[in-house]
């Protein structure tokens, strides 16, 4: 879910979570949950106070697709995260429940369990629970639009539903207090952690159960080569250099300026999309954003933080031309020679990262249909 950088106030955290831990310590343990992962994936870190369970995941799935979660009852999390688009929405930028456009392109929630930071440019949001505060209660932009006047109304919608009462009681215990914003958030975060994409043709190739075509194999070799240097940022199991699992001892959270803009000759990006500078206030952070995963990238157009590039071919053109000349651009964004065959091969490889199981599995689908 997209937003301008936001650091939740202590009052908001206290009002939502009460005595619960608000910035979770993600534990390097898989606990009792069984992650069905290939050998090249390790289990993600899980908050000690929000362990995985099937009942909680299924409750979170219902809440994720339920329009009653928004202040005016018109929009759900799923309104901006469609399963068939790898939980993106296909728009340049998304529209909130009040009709207000957000400033950023909707990122996929798939494999978010391995993301050490969330959203495009916010190093202060380190877990899915805290992240949920933004789309639910954020005011700039408004997404789900739960302002102070709507909080009780939203909770009463779920407290008045016998099915939800039973489901919350099963997960969090009996009583009206079981249906709280803290528990709603924990359930939705659990569902999002459970949305995994690990069964693409490339995963099958790594497991020895699929073969790449000649073009795909050339694209793979080029992707990981010093010539293209794609893997210098798009690395690891999720194809992002922001990644952490149970074996990670030092969590790194790099942000990069990829030379998309230079509107003043000094490297400036247009407001309100100026990267982590909007949090840090440091000029060197202008245009620095998190490296998005390339998994399912063939179905998640348009691209970049503001949805300003419409096709994968155009993305390759941007990087081949090393973006805009800028003193703030990451030095790895350098001019590379890609002929038409190279570009076709790279796209063929990127298309092997599409996970049809993610896009079609009933486990992640709308339970109300």
Automatic annotation (TrEMBL):
Its main location: periplasm. PROSITE patterns: CYTC. Pfam families: CCP_MauG (PF03150). This is Di-heme enzyme. Heme c 1 binds at residues 77, 80-81. Residues 214-354 form the Cytochrome c domain. One of its GO terms (cellular component) is periplasmic space. Binds 2 heme groups. It comes from Zoogloea oleivorans. GO terms for molecular function: cytochrome-c peroxidase activity; electron transfer activity; heme binding; metal ion binding. It is found in: Periplasm. Binds 2 heme groups per subunit. SUPFAM superfamilies: Cytochrome c. Keywords: Heme, Iron, Metal-binding, Oxidoreductase, Periplasm, Signal. Heme c 2 binds at residues 230, 233-234. It comes from the Bacteria.
